[in-house]
Amino acid sequence: MHPLTRATRRALLLAGIAGPAFGQTTLPDLVVTGQAPGSLTAPSVAEQREALEQTPSAARFVDGRDFANRYAFNLRDVLADTPGVFVQGRYGQELRLSIRGSGIARGFHLRGIEVLQDGVPVNLADGSGDFYQIDPSAVRSAAVYPGGNALAFGSSTLGGAINFVTPTARTATEANSLRVEGGSYGTWRLSGQTSAVFGDWDALAAGSIAHSDGWRQHSRGQYEQFNANLGYRLNDSVETRFYAGAYIVRQQLPGSLSLADALNRPQIANPAAISGNQARNLWAERFANRTSIRLDAGQVDVDSWITHKQLYHPIFQAIDQDGLTWGIAPRWTQRYELAGLRGELVLGGRYFAGTNDALQYLNTRGSRGALTANGVQRAQNFEAFAENRLWVLPTVALVAGAKMLRNERDYENRLTGQRFGRAYEGLNPRIGVLWQPRPAVQVFANLTRSQDVPDFSDQLQTVGNRPFWVPLQAQRAWTVELGTRGRYEGYGWDLTLFRSNIRGQLLQFTVDPSIPASTFNAGNTVNQGVEFAGHLDLTRGALAAGDRIALRGSWTFNDFRFRADRQYGDNRIAGLPPHVLRTVLTYAAPEERGFVSPVLDWVPQGAWADYANTLRANQYFKLGLEAGLRVAPNLSLFLDLRNLTNKRYVSDLGTLQNARAAGANTAVFYPGEGRSLYVGARMSF
């Protein structure tokens, strides 16, 4: 045993007082023993991938190098090849993100998935959120943990968690870079990064400004995003890293359309979006810290964060919110041997809270009219979790874990003096087994319990132009998954079958296209499906020595249904298409000098728009072409042609109860973008 040094004692004190002001969490199950040349707070991409691939679950990893020399404007471009992740654009960087049916009927923003940036939740404390804080040009890697597989982050929702990791000076692909892009519909983006390592310190700053006039009417948007981090290594066993970010969004909203308009006049805006000058304007600042201490008995990581978010959102009313979110999350990880068996233990907790001043006004052409709502939303989350992995054989590991939670939601109506609140408690266990017959081949089975707590958008429903509190239940599910993944010579695969038996699934239906949907707890439902991705090197040396031709594809099958529901029987749950397929054929020149990739996106059946299963979106093929060329050691050019045949299709939709019902407004469809061209250049130095 080594006595603690003075620097170690200082770091322990720092970890304790960082508290509600700072925080960050890295990928789970990563423990470094002995002296490491890298960073404790920011593991290398190889270490991140290794940690993920040791989990007995359908976890997936995305390396930022895969899209470094491609056009990646939103998270659809980052996650498009990831099986099981449904991500479709609406306009600008607004999109639908769903994993295994999370937020299946949510026609706006985010629910049922915890989105993390450097391990820090982007979601507000009530679980709601959006994606504007994530800058695709500043993503070094991403890790997808479906469902309860995100336990080591403290997440236990049906959709799980996605962690987007920004680069540090020690993990960036190059110290400095500059990127310029432009294309159709007045689109341009300028982004850059600079970094340095100086002794025990390292620092990186990255920023981007993106603008688009929009393919549709009234869809102009501009995004200004800045991320920075500063790391300091006190000694070989102690390191701290501070993060800062600032994000400004100004996005006009074109609204949703009827199916006929979406397919025949897709570039028009909903008249209400124009008359109300509907928009989403956001200003946010983020500060976080991660302090890591390597002890003789494992590693302690203390994460803390604070985020300020201001929102002005003229839509059905002018929503004016100002909120603060903060949290702290300590975690201890230890590798051990027991009776000759090796194991890994993770113990952690998280306190995650926030308050949000929520005002609403009549929308007068985008300006504030008469006050209609004035309230304060408060959320607190108390969480404790544990996970243990024990290798009972050299190639077989058993995994067991659980999370205890208490989520408190409170709303005070300042206009009436009324207060409403509810607390949700739960215990969510997890068991799994991993068989690894060879280093790059795995077979796994997993059983997890998830619990989704309603957010304030669910609980505060609009009645008579005023918020009305609805005491919804939590959504609970048991999910079983069986899968395999691996790499062997010139091919690789990732295949998972899953089934979730759900009680009280949180579903929504649209009252009016401009008004947030009403939420209800369904009875018994089933979400089941298949997630598959594969790649195959077809040939090498086809045109020149050292080149290759490779094929990769993904297939997501969704079979989400009611079970003997009194109103909907065994109908499919509306919101997502049953099949989503993507195929990419790539020719890569020798020594990575360039590539050409035809891309096919295929949705053979459109999603149902209503629970009565009377109206659905269209099926479609969509063709694209990506290409890149390295013209100098530090300069690359790239091209992205999208929707070459100018196919008219629905990219996303809201949900209805019954589209054939008298008086039903079916303007819930978002048309997909038409033919477009984007070019860019990336220089490193």
Automatic annotation (TrEMBL):
Query: Which SUPFAM superfamilies does the record match to this protein?
Result: Porins
Q: Which InterPro entries match?
A: Beta-barrel_TonB, Beta-barrel_TonB_sf, Plug_dom, Plug_dom_sf, TonB-dep_rcpt-like
State the signal peptide span: 1-23
Q: Which domain of life is it from?
A: Bacteria
Entries under Gene3D superfamilies matching the protein: TonB-dependent receptor, beta-barrel domain, TonB-dependent receptor, plug domain
The membrane topology of this protein is: Multi-pass membrane protein
Q: Where primarily located?
A: membrane
* Chain segments annotated as transmembrane: none
List the subcellular locations.
Answer: Cell outer membrane
Q: Where is the TonB-dependent receptor-like beta-barrel domain?
A: 182-644
What are the TonB-dependent receptor plug domain coordinates in residue numbering? 52-161
Name the PROSITE patterns on file.
TONB_DEPENDENT_REC_3
Q: What keywords are annotated for this sequence in UniProt? A: Cell outer membrane, Membrane, Receptor, Signal, TonB box, Transmembrane, Transmembrane beta strand, Transport
Family designation:
Belongs to the TonB-dependent receptor family.
Record protein name field: TonB-dependent receptor
Source species of the chain: Belnapia arida
Q: What is the lineage of its organism?
A: Bacteria, Pseudomonadati, Pseudomonadota, Alphaproteobacteria, Acetobacterales
